[in-house]
Specification:
With 67 residues, this protein is an all-beta fold. The protein starts with a strand and ends with a strand. The chain has strands spanning 5-6, 11-17, 20-25, 42-47, 62-66. The strands form 2 sheets. Strands 1-4-5 form a 3-stranded antiparallel β-sheet, with no helix packed on it. Strand 2 and strand 3 form a beta hairpin. It has one domain (5-66).
């Protein structure tokens, strides 16, 4: 929900592909195998897709900011 705070391991959403659900957290976007700010909390500022809306690779799903 917009305004919620979370850390890098909290689940942001579940993505479904072929009836399989995958939890997505901020740690999924870690490409260097290091947590940029592992001790920070983040606030959800905006959620772009509606619930059950199809998304594509590269779509902006969330806008978050550190708190």
């Amino acid at each position: 929900t917009v305004g919620d705070t979370l850390n890098i391991n909290d689940t942001l959403c579940l993505l479904e592909a072929m009836k399989l659900f995958r939890p997505i957290s901020l740690s999924v976007f870690n490409t260097m195998d290091t947590d940029i700010y592992p001790d920070r909390n983040y606030k959800i500022v905006r959620i772009n897709p509606a619930n059950s809306q199809a998304v594509n690779k590269g779509d902006l799903l969330f806008v978050i900011e550190p708190v």
